Prior knowledge:
The structure holds two protein chains of two kinds. Chain A contains 14 helices and eight strands. Chain A is of the alpha/beta class. In chain A, the strands form two sheets. A four-stranded parallel sheet of chain A has the order 2-1-3-4, with helices on both faces. In chain A, β7 (206-209), α13 and β8 (230-233) form a beta-alpha-beta unit. In chain A, α4 packs across α7 and α12 (185-201) crosses α13. The radius of gyration of chain A is 17 Å and the shape is globular. Chain B is α/β, with parallel strands linked by helices. Chain B has 23 helices and twelve strands. Chain B has a six-stranded parallel sheet, with helices on both faces. A four-stranded mixed sheet of chain B has the order 8-5-6-9, with helices on both faces. In chain B, a hairpin with a 4-residue loop joins β5 (224-226) and β6. Chains A and B meet through α1, α2, α3, α4 and α9 of A and α1, α15, α18, α19 and α20 of B.
Amino acid sequence: MRIALFATCLVDTLFPDVGKATVRLLSRLGHTVEFPERQTCCGQMHINTGYQREAMPLIRNYVETFAPYDAIVAPSGSCAGAVRHQHGMVARRAGDEDLARRAETVAAHTYELSELLVDVLGVEDVGAEYPHRVTYHPTCHSLRILRVGDRPLRLLRKVRGIDLVELSDGEVCCGFGGTFALKNADVSTAMLSDKMSNVVQTRAEVCTAGDSSCLMHIGGGLSRLRSGVRTVHLAEILASTGTPA
Amino acid sequence: MTTFLGMPTSPPGVGMLRGKDTFPIAARDALSNTQLRRNIGAATRTIRAKRAAVVGEVPDWEQLRDAGRAIKAATMQDLDEQLERLEAAVIARGGMVHWAGDANEANRIVTDLVRATGSDEVVKVKSMATQEIGLNEALQAAGISAYETDLAELIVQLAEDRPSHILVPAIHFNRAEIREIFLREMRGVDPGLSDNPARLAAAARTYLRRKFLTAKVAVSGANFAVAETGTLAVVESEGNGRMCLTLPDTLVTVMGIEKVIPTWRDLEVFLQLLPRSSTGERMNPYTSMWTGVTPGDGPQSFHLVLLDNGRTAVLADEVGRETLHCIRCSACLNVCPVYERTGGHAYGSVYPGPIGAILSPQLTGVNENPASASLPYASSLCGACYDVCPVKIDIPSILVHLRARHVEEARSEHVLPSAEAVAMAAASWVMSDAGRFERAQRGSRVGRLLSRKGRIGRLPPPLAGWTTARDAPAPPAQTFREWWRSEPR
């Protein structure tokens, strides 16, 4: 299958390894991955901070970039969620019904990584090997906007050598929330401190999730505390074949 | 983007809808109160578990939620007609109906009604509407003492504090603190009082019983009002509400206009949704319903005050209007990771938590004051509130909508855009074109100069808030798109 990768602005700029892992994983499964270079950002930061007008050119750019593809994958529940649940709504409220309809068509073919693997490609065992103790944080938008359910866990359970441990209060928000982390930095930090405490209690060496943004937040806290736990994106675990890259 | 400037909002200077400080500032105080955080954390955890258990045992819970939402949505479509039906039905059964445009008018109406009875004290049933309008303070200014009879409201009143939860207003106190409040403020209390919950409840019962037996006037709110029959309903746990609703001669009920439901049968849906969502009980211990006046039984004079206080302005907003579907169960507070850590006072309004973050600023006007304007941002948009709402209010989407209203209204009010608005416009310009975006990516690489071992310990403003508690990743030597281009394929 020919799959377009929507790397997301965050992965493209700060976490290129997550994008590379997604490409490696899908190629290993026999699919052709394309990276349309005119892509930028889904516009979620603008929309969720109240700047819907400023999000419009980003929505238009997303729609025009990805309209030719049958399947678009994002290594982010949050960005895929913004595409699926916000693009059409924002365009419609701005009075651009044509863009709203086109956005909804593209959105219907936009998937978060675990959705693409399990629902579209019909695979749970991706042939990965990852001999580490890992705990999984289900991010809010993959859980409550996309409803990915246990798809990421089904994928992780099939990884060879993995020691997967449950995270207490996993479904509670880590406190990132986009610009919330800056506007309400104290509350965000209080939420983070409880999340970190639950992560540390698992005695895992790796905390994984399907969103680099939440992982940047959790990982930034774990690193500041020198906790000895690192954050690794789900795509990187699924792309891993046990041999150090 | 439409702005709604035509409908009157709740007037400033009265009631309890506006905070002194913005949410981030007020939250900072709450977050540093370690006792408060433990108290609220423990209490919300307990209620969450109880709710999840009793909701889980209802096979048609999702259909009930849909029904609740549908009834409320239909009612809002012809709210004016439903209210007139209610008025006619209440009058037909011997009650009186008063229309209050805002908090000041409602306070004046209730004060005059109490004065007309010649009484200088009232007993109160737990009520959000009367807290919202600051009725106790208005009565006090008129020389009338109002006694809260709900145990938790009594605790808050004795402590001269403010409620911090819709359902459990004293959730921020533990029993040791409640014992201290009783010993300090409750006249005639046993000095040997322990912090055993049953002993505390018994002390309150003794104290309140005297009030119930002497009060001539009661003031209540209402959970529901049935337009078809003119019936008012109050749902409670303690029975103190029923004391107030049955013993005094005069009963004054202050009710937000959104509480009306069309028919008696509609109660079937809400009386299942409410207790399970709020206290985590299959059924609440006391459901009191009354219709007008019954000669020789209960209050012989009944007044219903219908309160707008900004609700029509909420109704005028096509997206925000479903906020009025709220049945005040507090399930959204109990699951909210923000509320759990800050408690209710940080929201500055009698309506805290996720529902408060959308209701309070709509009642006051989003940009009317900085505290109200900060509330739609008091959420990480995690979506937990939407999942538990018994009438499926899409709180996250309304938060996002109110943020847009805030930005758009600010845009139309100010000559100079804020620093944030400038940054957002710049980011939009950069990110709407891949070439510009790539140049910005290259520019961000300067951040590598700040880093040690791939992490940055301190960022400059406006990103400084990030690095007070977290490291930031250093920009990589190569972006993803540079790698993509460099790969042979």
